[in-house]
Amino acid sequence: MIKLFGLPVFIAIFAGISFPYFALSLMPFGVVFLFMLMLWSGISIDWRRISSVMKRPLDITLGLFFLFFFFPLLQLLLAKILITDKQLLLGLIFSSLTPAAIVAPLFSNTVDGDEELSFILLLLSMTLSPLIIPLLLKFFAQSILPIDFFPLFKIMLLLVTLPLIISYLVARFMPGIKLLISSNLALLNMLTLSALIFILFGTAVGRLNLHYEQPTEIFYLLLLAFVQDFGVLFLARLLLPWFFTASTANTLIVTLSMKNVAIAAGILLFYDPKASLAPALGFVAHAFLFSFIPIFKKWLIVKEKVGSIQQ
Q: Which end of the chain is more exposed for a tag (fewer CB within 10 A), N or C?
């Protein structure tokens, strides 16, 4: 099932192009699908392992460093070479600074990674993003876009705390429901994420007139979206096994390559629709990435511990 994960995403993208105004009408429900994705992720993990993962602060800290600083900086350097439009550049940088994708734990488990470590990185990156993104956006892009990040903080708090509580209670007291959701986790994530992508991509298309954009700029935006996914995936696969255990490296390789571009798209659609084109095109790269990882997981999986950072 997970090998087909990218297919409904492609369908959602084409549906968004075909029915943009219907997608626009569903925009208020976008946060509901984000909430559902968080819920599926929280229910499927092994809550008994969370405390042991929290005892690995170096892995967590370095994971956040790579997520928010190292790879976004590399993407910024490349983006400044290729993109001249300041609005589109802002969208690219914002996209690169977003938290880990909510489906990252699912794919981490697929490549023999640590699903609970990926989940912790997901929670922390979502919680910290309303504080870190404005600072780094100002530093990287010198942005003067009047974005009010306080509503984002409230949404993130809601998306972290409430699903966390519900998923723990379900996992603890409703094992039958946990088993049912865990057994169909790939399908639930596919359908929920595809609905969210249809809404956001369709809204972006509906609010923009792509005929006025330079074809070369759109091509470079799409190229950089693939760099943000596949470039990070391949570079992380090359570098991280030298510093982490195999399980941790597998986790980070996948988690760092998946950014929650839905957050950037949703915010920029309100403040600067043109800038939202960059994270919206990130969904196209995601569609390929979501199929690539399970199909080529034998190549991606780190089997031997080349080196590790001792805590």
A: C
**Residues 307, 243 contacting (CB under 8 angstroms):** yes
Tokens 């092994």, residue? 46
Q: How confident is the model at residue 307 (pLDDT cuts 50, 70, 90)?
A: very low
pLDDT digits (tens, 9 = 90+) for 142-184: 665 556 667 767 777 888 888 889 998 998 889 899 999 988 9
Contact 60, 117 (CB under 8 A): yes
- Residue 263 · residue 75 · CB < 8 Å: no
Global pTM?
0.90
